[in-house]
Amino acid sequence: METERLRLTPIGPHLADELFRLHQDRGIARWYGNWTRADAEARAAEIGRSWQRDGVGKWLAYHRESGELLGRGGLSYQDVDGARRLEIGWAVREVQWGNGYATEIGLAGLACARELRATEVAAFTEVHNVRSRAVMERLGFTYRHDFPHRGEPFALYAISVES
């Protein structure tokens, strides 16, 4: 899939090294922890299975012209706040924060959700992640409430995507 500035490539086991490299970024590791190569291999395999099983998953995001690895994002099904929901997320290398890439990844994910005829998409982040929350609001998501996730307070947002 391509957007105005991005080439979005579905993650699978063949991209484990790229996923590992991405998660070595200080800004991404701040939110997702320090990944080992084994962590990246397991996550890439899991995302590959998600693409096969659910028809959705996460992409690696590359700059269309330069080929630079910028981040990742996309859709997945997650147990969120006690329900299985179609969830959207993104992570962008710290050096690229503020350039609109998270919003562009989010718009691509919402377009896919519409193609799937989804009625709603959820997004969530740590309550203190103001940058991610701003992206959610820029995309039209509405704050619902805080909820506990992995022992931390997270903010849940949702958007209706019916055509």
UniProtKB/TrEMBL annotation:
InterPro entries reported for this sequence: Acyl_CoA_acyltransferase (IPR016181), GNAT_dom (IPR000182), N-acetyltransferase (IPR051531)
Keyword Transferase: yes
Coiled coil regions in record: none
Any GO molecular function: acyltransferase activity
One matching Pfam family: Acetyltransf_3
EC number: 2.3.-.-
Annotated ranges, domain N-acetyltransferase: 18-162
Top-level lineage group: Bacteria
Keyword tags: Acyltransferase, Transferase
Stored SUPFAM superfamilies: Acyl-CoA N-acyltransferases (Nat) (SSF55729)
UniProt name for this protein: GNAT family N-acetyltransferase
Source organism of this protein record: Amycolatopsis albidoflavus
